[in-house]
Amino acid sequence: MPEPTVDVPAVPKARSCPFLPPDGIADIRAAAPVTRATFTSGHEAWLVTGYEEVRALLRAPSFSVQVPHALHTQDGVVTQKPGRGSLLWQDEPEHTSDRKLLAKEFTVRRMQALRPNIQRIVDEHLDAIEAQGGPVDLVKTFANPVPSMVISDLFGVPVERRAEFQDIAEAMMRVDQDAAATEAAGMRLGGLLYQLVQERRADPGDDLISALITTEDPDGVVDDMFLMNAAGTLLIAAHDTTACMIGLGAALLLDRPDQLALLREDPSLVANAVEELLRYLTIGQFGGERVATRDVELGGVRIAEGEQVVAHVLAADFDPAFVEEPERFDITRRPAPHLAFGFGAHQCIGQQLARIELQIVFETLLRRLPTLRLAKPVEELRFRTDMVFYGVHELPVTW
Ligand code: HEM
């Protein structure tokens, strides 16, 4: 069988509009929704950009998450090693049973019960922002600390160690550094998590780690390593993602006065607005990586066992076959099943919590600061092209 030819010499990353997908990705999707491409690491792999094809890939059992190369980093070295409880780096059957143990703690009911606490955290941060007076950096004062506080509360992280967790979470999400730097951040996180697990074992509370320690565990898998892996994945996955959506979502809303006015006039639109923000911004900007565990057909193309594949969820969420006029940002759009939380076995376990947080955040922010506006033009903002999740590095605002 001949080697597949490379049709995309470099996967596009540059954006002429910071709120739209990279230039050229729509042409690639239209020409070939499954195609060969060269990635940042210099490796060749399959690039999947069509909505139906990405869904088919993410639900297929014939792909593993234990990829040989990190395609989106500069050196291609994989730093994460799969372990029990880590979910993102596990395949079935362990993934299925470990996810079941964790999912018990993420019921819609339990997440809804967090509402008052999230509202309090949001209000306290806005009190401080109001007292300080504008202009402020909304990323530093609000988008970063709010999700960090929510997940730290859920995990019982002591107040004095929260800043360090936040620092590590950021260090682990860079793609413009070598594998050693990412690994060093991972080691620091491991140390903090070990301490946290030992404290919860000695003195259980009503937090999520204590709940996992005491959960029914017929196979005896919930040991220290399981707890550290699970807590590490959850902390990292919950913090940076939600922070990016708050910062970037606020930037987009403040840049679109017509949509902002609609939401200010009718706050009951907030759930709808959050779904459109999630779709439009789909912050997992490079897409999820998988490797074929056997020869398989995807979108009419044959993928051989051992070949790597990227599910470009951002391109998929702008597929006109999925959503009409994808480039129109419209908070009144009927919510469609976007792929911002992924799809299939690894679909985001924290999506209910993320939705609740984002709804409370945007409703409260616009109500409490009704004249909120950007203090710097969008063209001057620094966007997170150097991180796994897209967003803004700073967001100067005033009111
Ligand atoms: C707006 C915020 C969020 C976004 C955009 C987001 C996005 C995603 C995506 C795309 C995946 C799938 C990754 C893949 O298939 O390779 C995922 C998985 C995951 N997310 Fe989220 N997430 C968010 C918030 C959260 C929160 C708040 C939590 C926890 C409280 C969380 C925990 C997880 C975990 C544990 C997984 C792995 C699930 C598995 O592998 O089975 N996420 N998330």
Automatic annotation (TrEMBL):
<dbReference type="InterPro" id="IPR002397">
    <property type="entry name" value="Cyt_P450_B"/>
</dbReference>
<dbReference type="GO" id="GO:0020037">
    <property type="term" value="F:heme binding"/>
</dbReference>
<keyword id="KW-0349">Heme</keyword>
<dbReference type="GO" id="GO:0016705">
    <property type="term" value="F:oxidoreductase activity, acting on paired donors, with incorporation or reduction of molecular oxygen"/>
</dbReference>
<keyword id="KW-0503">Monooxygenase</keyword>
<dbReference type="InterPro" id="IPR036396">
    <property type="entry name" value="Cyt_P450_sf"/>
</dbReference>
<comment type="similarity">
    <text>Belongs to the cytochrome P450 family.</text>
</comment>
<dbReference type="GO" id="GO:0004497">
    <property type="term" value="F:monooxygenase activity"/>
</dbReference>
<dbReference type="GO" id="GO:0005506">
    <property type="term" value="F:iron ion binding"/>
</dbReference>
<protein>
    <recommendedName>
        <fullName>Cytochrome</fullName>
    </recommendedName>
</protein>
<keyword id="KW-0408">Iron</keyword>
<keyword id="KW-0479">Metal-binding</keyword>
<dbReference type="InterPro" id="IPR017972">
    <property type="entry name" value="Cyt_P450_CS"/>
</dbReference>
<dbReference type="Pfam" id="PF00067">
    <property type="entry name" value="p450"/>
</dbReference>
<keyword id="KW-0560">Oxidoreductase</keyword>
<dbReference type="InterPro" id="IPR001128">
    <property type="entry name" value="Cyt_P450"/>
</dbReference>
